[in-house]
Amino acid sequence: MTQVAQEKIALCQEKQLPYLDLSSLGLTQIPPELSALVWLERLSLSDNQITDISMLASLTKIHKLSLSHNQISDLSPLSNHERLKFLFIQHNTITDITTLSTLSTLKKIVAHDNQIQNAEKLLSLPHLVYLDISRNPVNDPNSLKNMRTLKIFKA
Predict the structure, then answer these.
(1) What does pTM read for this prediction?
(2) Could you say which architecture CATH assigns to the domain 3-154?
(3) Beta-strand relationship, 108-110 and 130-132
């Protein structure tokens, strides 16, 4: 972990800040200290080289999460994030987004430039208004066009 990341985490812990930005710090893994910041509401880990997000499993109060521009393939650690509303996962190596279908509070998913093949499970999301799955090898993107709640759809 970099010195900058350590300082930002320490400040967030000391002041119980609701937001933490660890973007562009060259992180290859999520610092273990992050799992103790259970009050976090917004977290950015964009532009790193992170592959494993299992350390995020305990951060269930997060409603805005940015994991873009990493090397993430598995989203299952997010399965219990029932407050998540905004998710940015573009430019990763994600193939399966089935986990997201249980997160009924999701309003916005930006997931372009991955390896997603099937997005039909997202039809069950009652509040989803924005979905970007462009530049993915999605089998049948048109199946999502008829979602009543969807206002912006990019495939």
Answers:
(1) 0.95
(2) Alpha-Beta Horseshoe (3.80)
(3) parallel
| pLDDT tens-digit series, residues 55-110 | 999 999 999 999 999 999 999 999 999 999 999 999 999 999 999 999 999 999 99
Phi-psi region of 91 (alpha: psi -120 to 50; beta: other; left: phi over 0): left
How many residues make up the chain in this entry? 155
Coil, strand, or helix at residue 108? strand
Please report, for residues 5, 63, 135, 145, the alpha-carbon distance to residue 59 in angstroms, rounded to integers and kept in the order given: 18, 10, 29, 32
**Which segments within the chain are labelled E, that is strand?**
19-21, 42-44, 64-66, 86-88, 108-110, 130-132, 152-154
Q: Could you state, in order of their start, the residue ranges of all structural domains in the chain?
A: 3-154
d(CA 20, CA 41): 9
* 1: pLDDT strictly greater than 80: no
